[in-house]
Design brief:
Elements: H1 2-39, H2 42-55, H3 60-72, H4 76-89, H5 94-121, H6 133-167, H7 174-193
Helix pairs in contact: 1-2, 2-3, 3-4, 3-5, 4-5, 5-6, 6-7
Length: about 200
């Protein structure tokens, strides 16, 4: 009996020791990530924060910091993924919704800019794709899909920014956020009222 009790005690001590070492490693990674963020090295910060999440995926702060670092690195899809992960852990943390709304809006703008750039890079003229109407139809379909994707991100952005305001109604930046919401609404209305390419 004493032998069994001793084995259980050793196992408990091993588990506690591992948890403490794990927590120290997570804290060290988060501290290093903060240093990188202060220096503007968002890629390195993202790497440290992801490593921290690999060790302990229960810290909502790490998800938030990864989301912010990803936004600053213009990795909006990664930011959205991180922020949505954090919301699953702490859905009442208002800043998740603000940052998520920003990431979604920026991703919509990026999608739109890339689509416009691709359209501007195409050769212009009446008969450019005359010999390949399927290719022209595919390009129009792709452009339409990209616009629809951008609109969905803007709608999600509005929803998250409104959620932020509902959780934090007395925020000092309320007017700025309301302006962002209005800008997204204008984008959606403008995209929906433009004539479709034939």
């Amino acid at each position: 009996m004493k032998k069994a009790l001793m084995i259980v005690s050793v196992l408990i001590i091993a588990v506690i020791s591992t948890a403490c070492i794990n927590n120290m490693a997570v804290q060290e990674l988060n501290n290093k990530a903060a240093e990188f963020m202060q220096k503007g090295d968002y890629e390195s910060a993202m790497n440290r924060l992801q490593a921290s999440l690999d060790l302990d995926s229960t810290m909502y702060e790490t998800y938030y910091n990864l989301g912010v670092a990803s936004i600053n690195a213009k990795k909006y899809e990664k930011a959205i993924e991180a922020l949505e992960g954090g919301i699953k852990i702490k859905p009442d943390y208002a800043d998740f919704y603000y940052s998520l709304g920003i990431a979604q809006s920026e991703l919509a703008d990026e999608i739109t800019a890339k689509a416009e750039e691709a359209q501007n890079d195409e050769p212009q003229g009446e008969n450019v794709n005359e010999n390949n109407p399927v290719m022209e139809a595919d390009k129009r379909t792709e452009a339409s899909e990209e616009k629809a994707k951008a609109i969905e991100y803007k709608k999600a952005s509005i929803e998250n920014l409104n959620k932020y305001l509902s959780l934090n109604p007395n925020t000092e930046d309320k007017e700025t956020i309301e302006a962002l919401i209005q800008e997204s609404n204008s984008f959606i209305n403008g995209e929906n009222t433009q004539p479709k390419a034939e």
